[in-house]
Structures are given as structure tokens and as C-alpha cells.
Amino acid sequence: MTDRGPHWTTVRHSERPELWDRIPEDFAGVVPEYNLHGDIGDLYWDRMFKEFPEYQFLLYDERADAVLGTGRSLPRAWDGTPAGLGNGLDESIAAAFTEREAGIAPTALCALGVEVSPAHQGRGLSKVLLRELAVVARAAGLDTVIVPVRPTHKELYPTIPIERYAAWTREDGSPFDPWVRTQVKVGGVLAHGTAQSSRITGTVAEWESWTGLEFPEDGDYVFPHGLAPVHIDRERDLGTYWEPGVWITHDARVH
């Protein structure tokens, strides 16, 4: 448990696992419903907290007894090159487990999620959580934090390839996307966009439930909050979606 202010502390899952029971209610709406049904996440979610509890943490306000934010991460091997980052979230999650089983030493901390409770957004807590990821990395003997970012404004441009979107800048030269821009402001380096960061599949009925839309025929559909279109195959009763991402790297030694 690490002090972060008069009433804030960072709490690892290994210290107070019961606080995580509040996440479904307190963080409802932070990510869209479809984003809670990732193929890889469903396979590894429980194992992540059982096998890597020291890499999962909360920002906790003791006075208010409130969970303000959460950070989830896993250690993985990275060779330091942009290509070595791989495709994104799914690949990194699987790698953390297979590398541990193979006895491969990690070289970086991969952030899986940095989220602030809706009741406490607008207070700059995302930057606090990013700094805490660096603390977690250093505690594990790792010098680098890598983040397959879910770019928040990509949902406004779902048909633009992520490689182009990731390169967009504002007039002042800073990244166009707000979440990417926040990470760069605290020292992150934009590596590249990746089109297949996280795969989400479901039946047509499930996708209609998640999105509030109807999909009358086969094809690619833009949907609310989606960063790219979902492909619907009614004959196979299957909706397939690849969430794109943007790789950001941080030097954990300077946070």
C-alpha cells in the first residue's frame, strides 16, 4: 500500500482483494458494454488476479471509502523494438502467461487498463494511475511500461485506419487523440497503431444487445462507441470485431 495524498492510497489486489468487488457497480459505463466481452479477457481474467495480484492496483480514498481508479497490468518480455510490441492487448495478455510458464524473464510491464470511476473523472487521476504503473514496474525490476492504448476519440472516426489515425496531430504538434495526448504529456512515446489489438466475437443477438442496433444482413457495420466496424455473418450467427489500439511506451525510471 503506497501513500498518494492526504487520503489517497494505492492498494494492490494482493493486499485488499475485496475492494475489487466494487468495480462492476462503481465503474459501470467506463467502457462500452461490448468491450466487456473480449475473447482473450474471458479466458484469462480470473487467472490474472490469482497469478499476478501484485500487478493489479486501485487508487483508494480512505476518508470517503471510495475506489477512485484502477490499473491492471502484466509483465511480459519485450525486445525494445516497435515491431516487438506485437499486435496489442490480446497478444500481450497471452504472452504474460506463456512466458511465465516457459521461464522467460519479463523485461517490461504491459498496462491492460487504466480507468477512473465516473464519479471521480476530471480530477487528473489518469495521470496518477500512469505514474503508479511506473511504480509497479520498478518494484518488479522493470524499466519500461508499454501501453496498448484504446484511443478515446477513435469512435468518432471508425472507418479511418488506425495507422493513419495514430499519426494525426493538432496544430501545436501534439497527438490528436486525448488519451494518447495525455500519455505523451507525461513522457510517453507513441510507437504505432495496431489494427488487431483485441478480438471480440459473439452471436448476432449478443452484438445487437451490446450495441442497441439491428443487423438485418451480412456486412460491416459502424456501431455506437465502436472504434472500427463489426463484421456480421448471419449464416454463421457470428459477429467479429477487432478493436484497434495505439502502442505507447514509457520509461518507468523517469516517472
What key attributes describe this structure?
255 residues, alpha+beta, Aminopeptidase, 10-stranded mixed sheet, 7 helices, 27% helix
Structural class: alpha+beta
- Give the domain tally: 2
DSSP helical segment count? 7
CATH class of the largest domain: Alpha Beta
Overall 3D form: globular
CATH fold category name of the largest domain: Aminopeptidase
Give the end-to-end Cα distance, rounded to a whole number of Å. 18 Å
What letter string, H or E per element, gives the SSE order?
EEHHEEHEHEHHEHEEE
DSSP strand content: 25-35%
How many runs of DSSP E, i.e. beta strands? 10
CATH architecture of the largest domain: 3-Layer(aba) Sandwich
Task: Report the average pLDDT across residues.
Answer: 94
What does this structure look like?
The protein is of the alpha+beta class and 255 residues long. It has helices at 23-26, 39-51, 89-102, 125-139, 162-167, 178-185, 204-211; strands at 2-3, 8-12, 57-61, 66-76, 108-116, 144-149, 189-202, 219-221, 230-233, 238-251. Strands 1, 2, 3, 4, 5, 6, 7, 8, 9 and 10 form a ten-stranded mixed β-sheet that branches. The model has no long low-confidence stretch (mean pLDDT 94).
Task: Describe the SSE topology.
Blueprint: E1 2-3, E2 8-12, H1 23-26, H2 39-51, E3 57-61, E4 66-76, H3 89-102, E5 108-116, H4 125-139, E6 144-149, H5 162-167, H6 178-185, E7 189-202, H7 204-211, E8 219-221, E9 230-233, E10 238-251
Parallel strand pairs: 5-6
Antiparallel strand pairs: 1-2, 2-3, 3-4, 4-5, 6-10, 7-10, 8-9, 9-10
